[in-house]
Amino acid sequence: MYHFTYILECSDKTLYVGCTNDLEKRLKQHNGAKAGAHYTKIRRPVVLRHFERFRTLAKARAREAVIKRLTRKEKLALIQS
What we know:
By secondary structure, the protein is of the alpha+beta class. The chain has four helices and three strands, in the order ββααβαα.
């Protein structure tokens, strides 16, 4: 099983960073289910712009923390790479 760190672009052009072990399911939750994060619920639809795959949850969470500390400009550069 893999874990993923991801960046979503919301309808208002803001970026959301998260972590999951089922990327497809989580994207569906962000876009339609009540289980989606509150931040994305009010900014639907969201589009997956970037993801990274890890073998452990700890590594995925650590990467999530690093990405969350990046500036918007740095996150956009990561998406473009």
